[in-house]
Inverse folding.
């Protein structure tokens, strides 16, 4: 066994052992502990857990790679996936916590005094969470197969086993404390390579400052200016100004991600775990601190990875790297098929340009940027091993949070709330565990046989949350008169418009060939890409809801009293006492 | 009830202030006005680019903590803790 593999085994199985130990320590004994950790999590702990819950394989592995190739255009992910916490902290979390229930569908059902509203929310929640979880399961399989050279399938089974152990045993309580550990693992794994690389390139070890500093090569040129020059020389768009689509598309994309974040149930339900309204507000702040630690480093990782990549291939202008002289990481990633070279002009050197006819780097997968970054920068093996453990922590923690959202909506909302209301607490707890086990198997199955539409699904999850759940919650809190009919019509309209738009450009259920309009910017409504359409869906939702409200009876007095009650922290009900 | 009502009005006013700033730093400085702000620099960063990839996130953080603090004061003032 070589040294890298040895370190990787230690890092991965060491962290797994830690998660097991926590799971045994934090077993759930009641439904309140299973769904909401007994309402006794401190804001600081909750903030860390939200951070791990929120930062998925996509944040850890893909985001910096996207930024590396999109440049300024990648900002939509940075602003979009952080700005939603402002909305959560001010507009949603405190009031939903005060209401004191376990799940998002339960809140919607109570506020809109409607079983139908609750069912519509359950459906949105399950579709959004299941689509999201496929990506996590794939992330687990990929991380294992890449770093430990086990089969993708075996990696997936190990990942499922670990999640099964702590999620089924501990419920929200076990998940929360495991996520705290996972946060520490993932943030360490993300920042250490970034600090090394920032120091190498600029002499400043803080990546957020390094990105704005001059290069350490004595030239006195700013890193970003050099990067702009290098990429434009080769015909790529200028790094710091290249937009993603037009300004309107970036605007709508950012807005969709922000309100989608605020509407994703697995994030919202974390705010039910803290003891008070005050703690719910503080949790959102701490969560964003922990998220920002990664999100402000990511642009530095992206830009520096791009710079290193360009520099390796073409150390000085016109002096291209000999293919035979290529470094070891280049060879390693070629084996995976994620990096491909084709010597089009037969000169034995590597040309990397924006022109498809002369470009010889025919494939550079964006996802390899974070994973390959430590090797590109020649960092020691233990750092590379750490990145493997970090990627797994990111994928597992998000998968566990999603599984809990799914199982609580089935066992608590669908079974206990609607089908068999006289279930005892003990039966409900057992049911919750069975449903979660089934969900893990189902998610594992989808990870093994990813549907053809897997790539488009994360966008769909955000679109669903943005166009259906977010507006319903906002109207439920900020309008005392909004009634059941308005809310249901709004949710269905927002959801319908968004799905229709995504499907007409991407294919019905993403099946190729079934799209009836093209998927090119020219075909898009005002140039808004399908991924960015959740914002438009939300506007439709609000409009339809208020039109229907005008034509029907406003919410009755007891619902207005309910709204007044959860708007004020006075006379608090703790989740643990409620059931 | 009257008391509750003014508490809510003050809360709404705070939320509005925060959301205006939230909008200006991200959608305003980071997207709509990015080309104008890029004429200025913050070290090696073009200013608009900095807002889009760094500044807006710091501002979000400041907003949430400021709002939390203000609301805690408000809870005390109206005795609704």
């Amino acid at each position: 066994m070589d040294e890298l593999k040895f370190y990787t085994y230690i890092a991965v199985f060491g962290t797994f052992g830690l998660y097991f130990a926590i799971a045994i320590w934090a077993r759930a004994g009641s439904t309140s502990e299973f769904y909401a950790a007994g309402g006794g999590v401190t804001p600081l702990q909750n903030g860390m857990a939200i951070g791990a819950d929120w930062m998925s394989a996509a944040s850890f592995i893909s985001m910096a790679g996207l930024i590396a190739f999109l440049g300024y255009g990648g900002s939509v992910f940075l602003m979009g996936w952080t700005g939603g916490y402002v909305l959560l902290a001010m507009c949603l979390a405190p009031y939903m916590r005060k209401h004191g229930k376990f799940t998002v569908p339960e809140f919607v059902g109570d506020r809109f005094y409607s079983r139908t509203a609750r069912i519509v929310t359950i459906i949105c929640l399950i579709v959004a969470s299941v689509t999201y979880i496929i990506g996590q399961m794939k992330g687990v399989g990929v991380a294992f197969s890449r770093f430990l050279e086990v089969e993708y399938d075996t990696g997936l089974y190990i990942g499922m086993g670990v999640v099964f152990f702590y999620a089924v045993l501990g419920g929200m309580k076990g998940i929360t404390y495991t996520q705290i550990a996972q946060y520490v693992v993932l943030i360490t794994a993300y920042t250490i390579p970034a600090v090394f690389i920032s120091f190498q390139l600029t002499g400043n070890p803080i990546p957020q400052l390094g990105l704005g500093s001059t290069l350490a090569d004595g030239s006195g040129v700013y890193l970003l200016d050099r990067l702009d020059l290098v990429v434009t020389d080769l015909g790529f768009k200028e790094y710091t100004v290249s937009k993603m689509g037009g300004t309107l598309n970036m605007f709508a994309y950012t807005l969709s991600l922000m309100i989608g974040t605020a509407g994703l149930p697995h994030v919202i339900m974390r705010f039910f775990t803290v003891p008070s309204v005050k703690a719910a507000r503080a949790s959102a702040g701490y969560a964003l601190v922990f998220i920002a630690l990664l999100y402000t480093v990511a642009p530095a990782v992206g830009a520096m990875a791009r710079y290193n990549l360009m520099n390796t291939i073409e150390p000085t202008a016109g002096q291209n790297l000999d293919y035979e002289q290529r470094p070891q990481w280049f060879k390693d990633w070629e084996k995976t098929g994620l990096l491909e070279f084709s010597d089009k002009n037969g000169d034995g050197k590597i040309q990397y340009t924006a022109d498809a006819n002369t470009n010889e780097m025919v494939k550079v997968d964006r996802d390899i940027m974070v994973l390959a970054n430590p090797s590109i920068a020649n960092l020691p093996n233990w750092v590379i091993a750490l990145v493997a453990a970090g990627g797994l922590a990111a994928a597992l923690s998000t998968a566990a949070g999603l599984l809990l959202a799914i199982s609580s909506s089935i066992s608590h909302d669908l079974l206990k709330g609607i089908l068999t209301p006289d279930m005892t607490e003990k039966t409900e707890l057992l049911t919750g565990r069975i449903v979660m086990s089934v969900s893990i198997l189902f998610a594992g199955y989808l990870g093994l046989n990813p549907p053809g539409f897997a790539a488009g699904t994360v966008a769909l999850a955000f679109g669903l949350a943005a166009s259906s759940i977010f507006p319903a919650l906002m109207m439920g809190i900020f309008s005392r008169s909004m009634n059941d009919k308005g809310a249901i019509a709004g949710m269905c309209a927002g959801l319908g418009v968004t799905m229709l738009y995504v499907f007409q450009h991407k294919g019905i259920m993403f099946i190729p060939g079934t799209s009836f309009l093209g998927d090119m910017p020219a075909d898009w409504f005002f140039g808004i890409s399908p991924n960015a359409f959740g914002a438009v869906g939300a506007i439709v939702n609000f409009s339809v809801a208020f039109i229907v409200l005008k034509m029907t009876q406003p919410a009755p007095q007891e619902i207005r009293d309910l709204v007044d009650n959860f708007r004020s922290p006075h006379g608090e009900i703790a989740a643990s006492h409620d059931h | 009830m009257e008391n509750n009502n003014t508490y809510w009005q003050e809360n709404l006013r705070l939320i509005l202030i925060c959301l205006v700033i939230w909008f200006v730093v991200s959608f305003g400085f980071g997207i709509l006005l990015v080309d104008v702000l890029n004429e200025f620099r913050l070290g090696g960063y073009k200013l608009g680019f900095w807002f889009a990839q760094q500044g807006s996130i710091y501002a979000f953080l400041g907003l949430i903590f400021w709002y939390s603090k203000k609301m805690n004061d408000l809870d005390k003032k109206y005795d609704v803790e």
User: Anything to note?
Assistant: Chain A touches chain B through 47 residues (CB under 8 Å). The mean pLDDT of chain A is 85. The beta strands of chain A are 339-340, 363-364. The radius of gyration of chain A is 24 Å.
